[in-house]
Design a protein that fits this description.
Elements: H1 2-5, H2 11-32, H3 38-54, H4 58-61, H5 71-84, H6 90-106, H7 112-128, H8 131-143, H9 151-166, E1 174-176, E2 199-204, E3 208-213, E4 222-226, E5 230-233, E6 254-255, E7 263-264, H10 267-276, H11 285-292, H12 297-312, H13 317-325, H14 344-352, H15 363-383, H16 386-390, H17 394-414, E8 416-424, E9 427-437, E10 445-446, E11 452-456, E12 462-466, E13 477-478, H18 489-500, H19 507-511, H20 523-530, H21 535-549, H22 560-573, E14 576-578, E15 581-582, E16 585-587
Parallel strand pairs: 1-16, 8-14, 10-13
Antiparallel strand pairs: 2-3, 4-12, 5-9, 6-7, 8-9, 11-12, 14-15
């Protein structure tokens, strides 16, 4: 989160700041003098923003344009891949693969450019000794009208791949002991099987909505395992992961035929993505990344949620409108809903009612969100089937805008990052690759020195684990990716205030202790990770130590054993990536 916060302003933010100073602020200041409540302010500013943008060349200023396949770009990316290709350097092979995937995404279906990129990727597969993937790429190259001059090379690679499959396979995977599937540490809640029965949702003036435990918890206890409602892949991961299931399959990715921004591990994932959300974002995804960038991944995830929700109602905005008009939001509670019988629409309701923090936002921030929502709304109407649906129905048009704005705000407060372990030489670090909506886990409040941590599982679910003993009646605290071990106090407080509209009162913030410890390399964690061939032994040792120490922990930072526990669980139950490929584990 802090890395994204510190990124350069996006083009959309620059443009909004210009309009704010020249046009919008004068009108809003006049209305602020009347101290309009939020709902009336929104009623005032939304049509004003529409008028401003209607008479302003925002498309030209933001360089908005329809995403199309581009032969020249495809050739340029393939050429760059060739420059990086080196048969004995896996780090360079990984970079070459990304450029070949870029080329595939930009090449037209059935074109020679796409066929050559597939053929080049098949050669990368041979160097990695990934023979099955090699054969997949050879098939894709042939199906894409591979030029006759390359056929002999493809035939030789095919023979080499088939020969490789017949040879005894050398298992180069990392050894680890057989590990049982991660499960909840106590009986599950009677209505919510994703969490233990001792968790309760409370509310008070100091903390607002928050989660507490009714029983004593131990370090290492698994408290929640939740499947996301919707997810969004980071832009810098689109060339290595499937845009739908997020599996790491860089050697077999195939492109969406309607844009250059999404690639999939199979025709099945491509079809599911299109049916569930991509049909509403395909034609504008490239422009969304230009406007928002990685810096506003939450807002991007909000648009994905809107598209997913519309699909849940069979793409019928009238049905969706009737459902939401009849929804009593005060009665929607993820902790009391019976998840065993809940429909996908019921699950969406728990996302729809998450906090927007609208009343806590400044007038300028609200105006900026309306600015972005107005542009995205117009792009959806111009470029997707929703335009025809809303053309003669003002209520549906308003519903679409309200959903965009609402989920943009919800996502900025409630979206959660999912992390895998990535190897860089001798160091293994956590890398964020996806943002997700998890209605239950999003109920956890923040602390810069949390008592629980999130563990991303191989299947895409997210687990919550206690990283120190927690007393009965105590609140559970997660970290919104702003740990006291990684960020100095001023940066954390600024980011939390900007994005979440609150001032953190944890000991790390109150004491303002910024040690060198906060920024040094995770040497001990790295050493543990390198020796994780016996990780299933290390995790019990770490939990035993943490529970023996009890509650005698520094209150202003996490200890090495706490962070090692998180690393160990990620390695045992998540995915480790070396170069651009997931590590294969062999059981011992």
């Amino acid at each position: 989160m802090l890395r994204l916060m510190m990124e350069t302003m996006t083009e959309g933010e620059y443009l909004f700041d210009e309009l704010w100073e020249k046009t919008i602020k004068r009108s809003i200041i006049a209305e602020e003098m009347r101290q309009l409540p939020n709902d009336q302010f929104l009623e005032f500013i939304i049509p004003k923003m529409e008028t401003v943008l209607r008479n302003f060349p925002f498309r030209e200023r933001l360089r908005l344009s329809t995403d199309v396949k581009d032969k020249a770009q495809a050739i340029a990316f393939r050429t760059k891949g060739n420059e990086y290709f080196h048969p004995t350097r896996t780090d360079r092979l990984g970079v070459a693969t990304k450029y070949y995937n870029h080329s595939i995404a930009h090449a037209e279906k059935g074109s020679e450019e796409r066929a050559i990129a597939y053929a080049n990727r098949s050669f990368v597969c041979l160097q990695y000794e990934r023979y099955e993937e090699c054969l997949v790429n050879i098939r894709l190259a042939r199906e894409s009208n591979c030029p006759e001059r390359l056929m002999e090379k493809l035939n030789r690679r095919e023979a080499a791949a088939l020969d490789g499959l017949l040879k005894p396979h050398t298992d180069t995977g990392i050894e680890r002991e057989d590990v049982d599937e991660l499960k909840l540490s106590y009986n599950s809640h009677k209505n919510v099987p994703q969490m233990v029965e001792c968790l309760e949702l409370h509310r008070n003036e100091e903390f607002g909505r928050h989660m507490v435990t009714t029983r004593k918890l131990k370090a290492g206890d698994i408290l929640m395992i939740e499947k996301p409602f919707a997810t969004m892949l980071y832009d810098d991961a689109k060339l290595t992961r499937c845009a739908h299931c997020h599996d790491i399959k860089p050697l077999i990715l195939i492109p969406c035929e309607g844009c250059t921004m999404a690639m999939y591990c199979s025709e099945e994932c491509l079809s599911k993505a299109h049916g569930q959300y991509h049909r509403y974002e395909c034609a504008m995804l490239k422009d969304l990344w230009r406007i928002c960038g990685n810096k506003d991944m939450g807002g991007m995830a909000g648009i994905r949620t809107v598209a997913t929700a519309i699909a849940l109602f069979d793409h019928d905005l009238d049905e969706m409108k009737d459902h939401l008009n009849g929804l009593d939001e005060s009665k929607v509670n993820a902790f009391t809903m019976d998840w065993r019988t809940a429909t996908p629409k019921d699950v969406y309701d728990t996302v729809h009612v998450l906090s927007t923090n609208q009343a806590l936002r400044s007038r300028k921030e609200q105006a900026m969100q309306i600015f972005f929502a107005t542009i995205i709304h117009q792009l959806m109407l111009d470029r997707t089937e929703l335009g025809e649906i809303c053309a003669t129905n003002a209520e549906n048009r308003k519903l679409l805008f309200d959903l965009i704005l609402r989920h943009w705000q919800i996502s900025q407060v409630n979206s959660i990052s999912l992390t895998n372990l990535q190897s860089y030489g001798s160091q293994i670090v956590g890398e964020t690759h996806v943002v997700a909506f998890l209605p239950l886990i999003s109920m956890l409040n923040h602390s810069c020195v949390p008592n629980v941590s999130r563990v991303t599982l191989c299947d895409g679910r997210c687990a919550v684990v206690a990283i120190r003993p927690i007393a009965a009646g105590e609140q559970l605290f997660d970290s919104y990716d702003l740990s006291a071990n990684e960020c100095i106090t001023g940066d954390r407080l600024h980011c939390l205030k900007t994005y979440y509209q609150f001032t953190c009162r944890c000991d790390a913030c109150e004491l303002e202790i910024d040690e060198a410890y906060a920024n040094h390399e995770d040497t001990e964690v790295t050493l543990i990770a390198e020796r994780m061939k016996k990780a299933s032994n290390s995790v019990p040792l770490l939990t035993s130590h943490l529970n023996a120490v009890g509650r005698h922990f520094p209150s202003y930072r996490l200890t090495d054993p706490q962070r090692m526990l998180w690393h160990g669980l990620l390695l045992l139950h998540g995915t480790l990536i070396v170069d651009i490929l997931p590590v294969s584990f062999k059981k011992v």
